[in-house]
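The data are set out underneath:

___
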Amino acid sequence: MARSFTISILFFNEATKDCDYVKIWDENGHLYLKCSHHDGTHMFEIKRLNSKGVSYLEHWEQNWDDKRTEREVHDKLMSKYSVLPNFMATVYGCPKIQYAN
């Protein structure tokens, strides 16, 4: 089964709201979204949650007594429960690593 890479329309619309310029690119497997307008620039790195990450997030969202902040949950998801999307490699067959730092 082919992996599906979709950016939620709601996320995309919210992230790019009032922006004049939008750029999406893959850099060595990292997927970035940058959007700019007269007040400044928004920069996002988009990652895929693994199955444990989805469970972790759902548990936090459904537990009203959980005292972890949104920032704490986000940091844990990004550091432990997410993977690089490798968009260009998966969709277009490009090398995952295009250059070494």
User: Anything to note?
Assistant: The first strand starts at residue 21 and ends at 27.
